[in-house]
C-alpha cells in the first residue's frame, strides 16, 4: 500500500491506555455465569421432560378401560410433545450468513484496502480478517461465517464494511472505524456473543414463536375432555416453562447488553490509540447525517421502484441528501467557560437503557476525550482505498433491489437521471415558506368543495380586504403555532419516559419551567389539552383558508376557478379514502400486535379476530369502491391511471374473506400498508398543486 493512504498513528499514549478495565473483566465473568446457568436450566428442563416420558411409559393403572387407556396414551404423547417442544428449536435453521448475502472483496482486486487493513491489524495486535465483505449499510461489523462452528472451536472473524459509511467518511475517520472493529477482533469475549445469540434464538423460538406444534396442541385441547385432559396438563407445564425461559432470556440479555456497552468502550480506546481522539469523536458526529441521508435515499428510490425505475448507484443519491443534511445541521453548542469543546451533550432526560448494546454518544465522547490523544487528520475520501469504486458501487447497489419476476424487473438508469426524477417528485411536495410547516405536519380538515359557500355563515375571516385577510392568515403567527406544537410533541415524548418508568431522573423541564418527576402526568395532561386547542385552531384555519380562496376564485376567470375546484374535489376524494385506508391499516397492525402478545389463542379468539379482520376488509373494500368514482388528475409521474382506485391497486387484488392464516394476514397487511403509502403520496402531491394554484390567484 502507498504509505500516503495510511494516516499516521498517534506518537504517544498514556500508559495502559488500551488495557481492559476491571468492570469489563467482571462483566465477562458475569456473562459466562449467565450462560452456564441457562445451560443448567435447559438441561434440567430437558431431563425433567425425558423423566416424564419414562414415567408415563412405565406407569400402569390398576385397571384399563377405553377411557383409561386413552388417557394413558394421551399422557405418553403429551410427555413426548414436551420433549419435542424443548428440542425443536435446535433443528431450525439459523440466520443466513453475511457471506451469502454480501459481495466478498479480494486482495487482488483491492490491494490498497487490504494493505491498509494489514497495517491497521498489525498496530492493533489483532488477527487479520478471514474475509472482507461489503454492503450498502452505514455500518462496519465483525462476524463469523459460521456462528454455530464458532461455539466449539476457534474460528477466524470476518469484516463487513458498509459502503454507505465509506461514502461519508474521510481517510482519518475510516481508520478510526476500522480500528474500532479491530478492537473487537482482539476481544476474546466476542465468542460469548455467539453463545448468547444461539441461546437467545433457542429461547425466543420456545417462548415467543408459534408453529405446527402449538397448532396441534390447540386442536388436541378442542377434543372431548376425556381425550384432551393430557393436553391441558401439558399446556400448563409449557406455560410454566415459557415463563422460566422468558426470565432467563431477559437475564442473559441484561448482562450481555452491559458487556456489549463495555466492549464498545474498550474498542473505542483502541480506535483512539490508532487514530486519535478527534477522529473517533468526529465519526460518531458524522454517523447521524450519513445514516439519515442513506435512509432518505433508499426511501426515495423505493418510490422510483414503483415506476419500475432503479438507480445504478445508491451512494450518488446518498451524497445528495448528505450535502443537504450537513448544510442544515446546527453547529455544536459552544462550551461553557472552562469546559472543553464537545460535539455531543447529555440528553435532557437520562433514559434507563438496560438492553442497549451501545453507550450514548456523549458518554463515548467523554471517554475518548478524557485523556485527549492528538492524531493527524487526512480529509481525503475513504473511497481512495478501493480500486474502481464506481463498479463496486454499482455491484452493491444491485444487491439492495429484490429479485423480480421475468418481465417485471425495473429499468436500471444512471443515478443522475433517477435523481432528476426524484427531484421532480420532491418539488411537488415542497411547500412555500409562508405556510410555516403547517401542511407538512398534519392532514388538513376535510371540506366538501361544493359546500364552501356554506362557510360564509359559520366562519369569519380576519378583518380587512381579502388581501389583508390572506396576509393575516399566512403571517408569522402560523409558523409560531406550528413550532409550538412541534415543541409540545417533543415534550410529550419526554414526559412519556417518566410515565413509563424509563428514566430515574427526579426533575424535568418544560417551556423553561422545572418540575418534579411526580408531576409528569399532570403536565402531560395540560399539554394534551393544548394539543386539542391546536387541532381546533388548525380546523378553523383550514375553514378560513378555504373560504378565503372561495372568495378569491369567485373573482378569477372561469377557467382558473374551474381548475381550482377540480383540484379541490380531487383532494376531497383523496382525503375521504385516505382517512379510511389509514384507519384500517393502523387497526390491522394493532390486531396483529395483539395476536403476537397472546401466549395461547383459543377458538373463540380465532373467531373474534376473523370477524375483526373481515370488518376491516369490508371497510377497505367500500372505501376503494367509492374511490373508483374519483377521476385522477394530472400529477408528476402518475400518468395512465383513470381513477384513484386504479392508482392505489395497480392491478393488484386484495384478499377476500378473512381467514386466520399467516398467508391471509400477511397479504392483507402488505395490501393495507401499500395502499396507505400510495394514498399518502397522492395526498401530499395533490396538496402541493392545490396550494400553488391558490398562491397564483
UniProtKB/TrEMBL annotation:
Sequence ranges assigned to domain Peptidase M48 in this UniProt record: 157-366
Keywords recorded for this protein, A-Z: Cell membrane, Coiled coil, Hydrolase, Membrane, Metal-binding, Metalloprotease, Protease, Transmembrane, Transmembrane helix, Zinc
Subcellular location: Cell membrane
Xref: CDD domains: M48_Ste24p_like (cd07328)
GO biological process, one term: proteolysis
Residues that span the membrane, as ranges: 27-57, 69-91
Listed cofactors: Zn(2+)
One term of GO molecular function: peptidase activity
Entry-linked InterPro entries: HtpX_protease, Peptidase_M48
Coiled coil: 517-544
Membrane topology annotation: Multi-pass membrane protein
UniProt cross-references to PANTHER family, sorted A to Z: PROTEASE HTPX (PTHR43221:SF1)
Protein's UniProt name: Zn-dependent protease with chaperone function
Organism: Hymenobacter artigasi
Lineage: Bacteria, Pseudomonadati, Bacteroidota, Cytophagia, Cytophagales
Amino acid at each position: 500500500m502507498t504509505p500516503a493512504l495510511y494516516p499516521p498513528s498517534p506518537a504517544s499514549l498514556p500508559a495502559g491506555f488500551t488495557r481492559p478495565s476491571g468492570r469489563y473483566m467482571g462483566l465477562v465473568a458475569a456473562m459466562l455465569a449467565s450462560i452456564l446457568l441457562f445451560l443448567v436450566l435447559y438441561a434440567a428442563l430437558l431431563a425433567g421432560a425425558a423423566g416424564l416420558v419414562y414415567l408415563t411409559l412405565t406407569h400402569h393403572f390398576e385397571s384399563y378401560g377405553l377411557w383409561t387407556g386413552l388417557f394413558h396414551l394421551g399422557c405418553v404423547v403429551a410427555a413426548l410433545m414436551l420433549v419435542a417442544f424443548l428440542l425443536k428449536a435446535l433443528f431450525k435453521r439459523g440466520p443466513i450468513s453475511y457471506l451469502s448475502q454480501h459481495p466478498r472483496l479480494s486482495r487482488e482486486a483491492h490491494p490498497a484496502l487490504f494493505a491498509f487493513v494489514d497495517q491497521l491489524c498489525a498496530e492493533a495486535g489483532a488477527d487479520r480478517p478471514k474475509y472482507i465483505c461489503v454492503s450498502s449499510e452505514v455500518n462496519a461489523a465483525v462476524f463469523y461465517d459460521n456462528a454455530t462452528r464458532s461455539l466449539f472451536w476457534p474460528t477466524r472473524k470476518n469484516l463487513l464494511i458498509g459502503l454507505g459509511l465509506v461514502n461519508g467518511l474521510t481517510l482519518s475517520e475510516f481508520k478510526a472505524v476500522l480500528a474500532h472493529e479491530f478492537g473487537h477482533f482482539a476481544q476474546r469475549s466476542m465468542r460469548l456473543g455467539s453463545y448468547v445469540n444461539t441461546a437467545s434464538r433457542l429461547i425466543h423460538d420456545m417462548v415467543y414463536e408459534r408453529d405446527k406444534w402449538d397448532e396441534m396442541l390447540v386442536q388436541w385441547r378442542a377434543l372431548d375432555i376425556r381425550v384432551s385432559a393430557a393436553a391441558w396438563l401439558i399446556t400448563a407445564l409449557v406455560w410454566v416453562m415459557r415463563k422460566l425461559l422468558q426470565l432467563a432470556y431477559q437475564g442473559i440479555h441484561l448482562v450481555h447488553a452491559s458487556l456489549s456497552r463495555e466492549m464498545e468502550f474498550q474498542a473505542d480506546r483502541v480506535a483512539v490509540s490508532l487514530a486519535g481522539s478527534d477522529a473517533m469523536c468526529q465519526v460518531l458526529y458524522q454517523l447521524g447525517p450519513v445514516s439519515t441521508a442513506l435512509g432518505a435515499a433508499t426511501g426515495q428510490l423505493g418510490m422510483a421502484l414503483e415506476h419500475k425505475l432503479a438507480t445504478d448507484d445508491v451512494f450518488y443519491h446518498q451524497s445528495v441528501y448528505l450535502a443537504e443534511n450537513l448544510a442544515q445541521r446546527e453547529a455544536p453548542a459552544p462550551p461553557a467557560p472552562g469546559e472543553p469543546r464537545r460535539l455531543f451533550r447529555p440528553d435532557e432526560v437520562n433514559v434507563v437503557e438496560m438492553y442497549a448494546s451501545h453507550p450514548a454518544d456523549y458518554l463515548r465522547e467523554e471517554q475518548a476525550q478524557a485523556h485527549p490523544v492528538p492524531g493527524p487528520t487526512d480529509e481525503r475520501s475513504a473511497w481512495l482505498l478501493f480500486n474502481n469504486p464506481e463498479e463496486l458501487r454499482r455491484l452493491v447497489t444491485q444487491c439492495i433491489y429484490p429479485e423480480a419476476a421475468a418481465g417485471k424487473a425495473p429499468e436500471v438508469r444512471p443515478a443522475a437521471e433517477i435523481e432528476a426524477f426524484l427531484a421532480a417528485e420532491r418539488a411537488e411536495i415542497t411547500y412555500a415558506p409562508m405556510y410555516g410547516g403547517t401542511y407538512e405536519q398534519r392532514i388538513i380538515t376535510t371540506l366538501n368543495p361544493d359546500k364552501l359557500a356554506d362557510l360564509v355563515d359559520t366562519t369569519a375571516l380576519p378583518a380587512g380586504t381579502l388581501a389583508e385577510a390572506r396576509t393575516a392568515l399566512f403571517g408569522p403567527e402560523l409558523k409560531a403555532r406550528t413550532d409550538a406544537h412541534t415543541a409540545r410533541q417533543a415534550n410529550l415524548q419526554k414526559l412519556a419516559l417518566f410515565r413509563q418508568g424509563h428514566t430515574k431522573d427526579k426533575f424535568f423541564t418544560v417551556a423553561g419551567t422545572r418540575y418534579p418527576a411526580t408531576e409528569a402526568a399532570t403536565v402531560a395532561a395540560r399539554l394534551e389539552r393544548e394539543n386539542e386547542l391546536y387541532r381546533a385552531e388548525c380546523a378553523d384555519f383550514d375553514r378560513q383558508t378555504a373560504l378565503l380562496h372561495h372568495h378569491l376564485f369567485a373573482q378569477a376567470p372561469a377557467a382558473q376557478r374551474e381548475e381550482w375546484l377540480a383540484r379541490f374535489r380531487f383532494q376531497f376524494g383523496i382525503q375521504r379514502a385516505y382517512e379510511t385506508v389509514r384507519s384500517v391499516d393502523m387497526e390491522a397492525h394493532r390486531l396483529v400486535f395483539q395476536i403476537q402478545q397472546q401466549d395461547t389463542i383459543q377458538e373463540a379468539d380465532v373467531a373474534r379476530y376473523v370477524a375483526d379482520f373481515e370488518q376491516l376488509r369490508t371497510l377497505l373494500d367500500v372505501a376503494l369502491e367509492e374511490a373508483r368514482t374519483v377521476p385522477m388528475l394530472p400529477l408528476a409521474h402518475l400518468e395512465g391511471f383513470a381513477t384513484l382506485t386504479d392508482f392505489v391497486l395497480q392491478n393488484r387484488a386484495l384478499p377476500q374473506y378473512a381467514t386466520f392464516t399467516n398467508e391471509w394476514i400477511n397479504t392483507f397487511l402488505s395490501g393495507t400498508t401499500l395502499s396507505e403509502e400510495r394514498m399518502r403520496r397522492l395526498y401530499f402531491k395533490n396538496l402541493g398543486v392545490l396550494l400553488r394554484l391558490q398562491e397564483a390567484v
